[in-house]
Amino acid sequence: xxxxxxxxxxxPKLTVLLCQSLQRIRNxxxxxxxxxxxxxxxxxxxxxxxxxxxxxxKTPSLxxxxxxxxxxxxxxxxxxxxxxxxxxxxxxxLFVSALEASxxxxxxFMS
Length: 111
Fold this sequence. Notes:
Blueprint: H1 2-28, E1 32-34, E2 39-44, E3 50-55, H2 63-79, H3 93-105
């Protein structure tokens, strides 16, 4: 009987603590690795999907860009596409076109 009254008070506090912990883990996670010849940028989604990009070693962090690439391109053209099967080769011309346009428009990838 007591749990009916205590649980509604405890759950919101636990949720806040869990969100804060996840944010701390995300902030402390591996983002990039630099050598004298390249910089490897790494972004992992909450579901475990990994994005890896190599650039010039002087390129600033691409975390925000890779996150946006995930939400604006991958989610829109792969996740929402009923013909794309997760874990398989992505054979979607709209996805490839959107990906190429995003990369071509980013200042760190312009040649």
